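hey so i finally got around to running both of the ones u sent me last week. sorry it took forever, my laptop kept dying halfway thru and i had to restart like 3 times lol. anyway pasting them below in the order u listed, first the sequence line then the structure token line for each. didnt double check formatting much so if smth looks off just lmk and ill redo it

first one:
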Amino acid sequence: MSTFQFTSIEPHQLKQEIAATVRTELRLMLEEFKNLQPDDLLTRKEAAQFLKISLSTLNGWKKTGKIIGCGTGNRVYFRRSEVERCLQPLSMKSR
């Protein structure tokens, strides 16, 4: 075990320095964790509600490839990023 001797720093200053360093490291770890989280999955009903369309319209969009679904067994899900991607900005037509 190593021994450290602090001669030019007061205990409250050391405490502040340690706290600041720990906060910085925790923020960095949190950002990395956010980037690693999987994309939220929405059910058919949740995706339709998010897009404000009917389930039959959502099914039609899925069949034509406008939106890509994923799933397991007989369950169909949509990634939130995929649902947001299918929303395209409308161009403003000049009058």
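and the second one:
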Amino acid sequence: MEPFLLTGHVLAGILFLGPMAVTTSLFPRLAAVVADAATERDGERSAAPAQLLHRITRKHGVLTPAAPVIGLALAGAQDRRSEVQIVAAMDLTAAAGGLAALRTMPGQQESLQTPVDSARLTWRTRILALAPVIGGLFTLVNVRRRGHR
């Protein structure tokens, strides 16, 4: 059972978390393109790439909790749920997931609905800039976990 859970945990992280982290990181740059596209008349710029990134972020974000859930089941199967590194990994994962769900995804949606010119990107840019924090938290989970086996 443990090899199955470990494989599921790793695959969920790669297939769901990885794309969400990448699209979340790429979105802020394209938010300015969306803003400029609203004022472009020749049609060279398009909001479609930013909309695609938001869709990927949203859909993969729904599936991403599979990785920590399977990881928690694996920790239970190995009787390691109370170890400090497991508890820290779960806390960091919850923080990153909370930032993504409560700040980044709504910020992306608002940026797509009400674009402003790229010179005046306001608090939305700061919220969207949380992407590196989210990626850093998930990286810290993996580095922390690998260093204490």
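quick thing i noticed on the 2nd:
The chain has one domain: 2-147.
anyway thats it, ttyl
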